[in-house]
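Hello,

Following up on my earlier ticket. Below are the two sequence lines again, exactly as submitted.
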Amino acid sequence: MPIKLILEILLFCLLMFIIILIILKRGRISVKYSLVWFIPVIVILICALIPNFMMMLAKLLGFQTLSNMIFSILIAILIFICLSLTIIVSGQKEKIKLLIQEVSLLKEKVDDKNGSRK
Amino acid sequence: MKKILVIIPAYNEQDNILKTYKSIINYNKKNKTNYDVIVINDGSKDKTGKILNTNEIPHVNLIHNLGIGGAMQTGYKYALENDYDIAVQFDGDGQHNVNYIKDLVDVLDKDSDIVIGSRFIKDVGEFKSTAARRMGINIISFFIKLFTKKKIYDTTSGFRACNKKVIGKFAYSYPTEYPEPISNFELLKQGFKIKEVSVEMNKREGGISSISSWKNIYYMINVILSIIIISVRRYK
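Thanks for your patience. The regenerated structure is below:
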């Protein structure tokens, strides 16, 4: 792999790493969910650092070029992340529904007791 | 005397809600029944909330719109909390006729857990909905029969009465979307007894149905997929 490409990849990984850390530091993402985003960064990093081994692996698995394998792996990881996000969203939707119902019922009860229907 | 609650979910029903409520109150006076009413105001954006307040109609205001399933479930939670024996689902848009509540409750008392007010058992009433929609309902019926060996004619009907056992079940879990066919199927799967009673339904007097015509196919796919998924799920 040309040295230029490796440098570019390293730069990209560094940037991703810093961005995730900044978001983490600001508390905009929980540690648990940030881990998921470190995985693709690490995968790219490995590919850049040991290209010969990865090239062999690509050939073994039937990929024509190394880049094809990297793309495939990353797409798979992204699909997995999306799926897990959908699971999280579904769970939260259920929790929000429960909250709205209970708060509304409680509110009705309180209003009823005070005799003042707002 | 059994405590009966009529649950009316309402989303932007300013034109019909008062009429619907009054029809039940008048019925109570005429027939010496005591159906309690609770309107679940599902975050309406029109004057529904105001009408409910000024006319002192018992209601729960959902602090945010939940959709028909979430609203209906709130009604069942209310029924459970207040220890009702029977809960009747009733539309706020004037589609359902208060005179049939008694028919549903009578059958429920005998030997079933939930009774559906059905449009299709016998030929009564002018409102049969469109041919496309009837076909859709028939297909859903077919799938339910395929998995449970039981036939429900009008599985999308929102006019239903259920006993305490089912109130408890619905308060605990109720489908968020397309609740009627899916919950009917779930009940059958869990061994509850469902009966159908022939009722007459009026044409909608205002408002927009929760199932608009172009969404019919999407609705069908969703319901059938849900039925298939539920049928492979295990219940303890």
